[in-house]
Structure formats: structure tokens, C-alpha cells
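Q: Convert this sequence to C-alpha cells.
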Amino acid sequence: MDIGVLLPTGTAQWGPADDPRELVAFGRSAERLGFSSLFANDSLISPRIEALTMLAALAPVTETVTLGTAALMPFLRRPIQAAQALASIDLLSGGRLTVTVGAGFPGRFGRPLYTLSELPWERRFARLDETVALWRALWDGADAFHGEILRFDDIPPTTRPHRTGGPPIWLGGATPAALARTGRQYDGWLPYPPDPADYASGLRNVHKAATEAGRETEDITPALFVSVRIDNDIESGRRALDDYARAAYGMPLEELEKIQAVVTGSADQVLEHLGRYVAAGARHIVARLGALDLHSQHDQLERIADLIPCVQAAADHASTSESS
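A:
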């Protein structure tokens, strides 16, 4: 069972006196506290430290944590240059990179990004899958690639990652098509369903697609992206998360929690709720901390770190129950 944290790279998560250079120390603190991964978000909608820049800064100053994207939007970048950047981070980290990708969502959090990137909204999922296939081909030494959308000849030698075949690539998304594509093509699944029951059913569909494609289900990491706030009780936690949702998303908490996993309350209440996702099959939790300045982010980091042994014990219990 892995417990990771989403780095507060967005300016909505900083206070007026915060220095963004403190994010490097934040990542190192998370590693010392026992978190097993550090993830960075990717967007052009709100100002933030760019995801790959953040991970590159952390690669040489951390030792064991996985460095991940949650989720990277490949259409924001030229595909060959992105392959070079990802391979470089994997090299600098000694093979600790995990790349979660997404194609964006309808509405203001997705389609405007395609306009800014001068790419068509249509066939975005095919473009995403082809981009990932191109990356994998380049990391294996290919000098040409011929897809339906992306076609390149005479590709010069590119940077090879630390690991043969490159870093694992996860998919973010929970539509039926995304579940099938995860099972057929990707190394992990990182959704954020509000209901643990939806996580369980989604994971079953991922496994079904993997089996039909001749893949081992154990080769696909079942991860979860979840916003977490430990507070005195659920009511106080919800008030703080409402402030967070309005600052980060421009919407109240009651709207955000309809589309994203959100957990709050006392430490015991948060542990109980996370345990439901563990029972549903999640084995790598990426926690986004519901706080609006780096001091409060550090406080939440320490509170959640205290829960790591209990969440891992819950996963051990769930795995034992599954095998018995």
C-alpha cells in the first residue's frame, strides 16, 4: 500500500507570504514523514508551477519517493519533446517517475486548453493513446512512428529513460471507455470517484478488459486521487474544504464533491472513509491536502502521515481477506 501526496503547486494553495521555492522542502519533508510518492498537477487554467519543472527540481534532492504526474495533459506539449523531458526526469531520479495522463474534460477545465494548444478537441482520446504509444516507441529506440494522427519519419536518437521501456504510464478517468483503455494499454489507474462502490465496480471493469487483452491484472496499479482534510470534525472540515474548493476551482464544495472524492473529519473519520476505498481495491492513494497556505499544508501533511501505518494495515487486512 502506497500513500502519496499532491504537491501544492497552484498559487491558490499558497498564502501571501509563501515562497514557492519552499515546495522543494515540502517534498523532502513528505519523504521523511513516510509518504511514498509526490505528485504534481498539470494545467493552463490556473497559475501554478509547471508539473515537469517541479518534478525535475525534486529528482536530485529526494531518494526513494515515486515522482508522479496527476494528471499530465500530453496535448499541452509537443509529443517528441515531452518524451525527452519525461525520460530526463526518469534518469535524474534514478527510475522513480510515474506518468499519469489525461485528455481533459468537457467544459472550462478541458476544451479551452486545446484552443490554447492549437489542437482539435475531436479525437482527443485517440491522440492521447497515440502519444503514449509514441513515447514508448521512442524510449525503446524507434526512429519512426506511423499512427493515424501522429506520423514521424527519420527521428534522431532520443533520450532513453533509466528503465527499459520507460516509466509506467497510468490513465486518469472513469468513463466506460477509459476503464477499457486502462485495462488494455496502461500500467495504472488513477480516478477520483466520490463513491467507493464506483471505485470497486470501475476496477472490476479495468481487470475484465485486462484479462480479455491477455494481460495480468496485477500489472495494473489501482490508485486513487482524493482530497483530504483532517479537522476537529466533519463540519469544520467541510467549511475549510469549501474555502479550498472555491479558491482552487471556483465552485462550492457541494458541487466539487459530486465529481471528485473528498474525505474530511477527525483523524478516525478520515481513516474510516479511506478504508472504504482500500476495501474497494485502491492500493496507491494520492492525497490532495485541503489547505490554502503552505503552513497549513505542512500541518495537514503531518496529520495524514500519522495515518499511514493504519491505512497500510487496512490494505494488508483487505488483501488477506481477498486471498482467503
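The radius of gyration is 19 Å.
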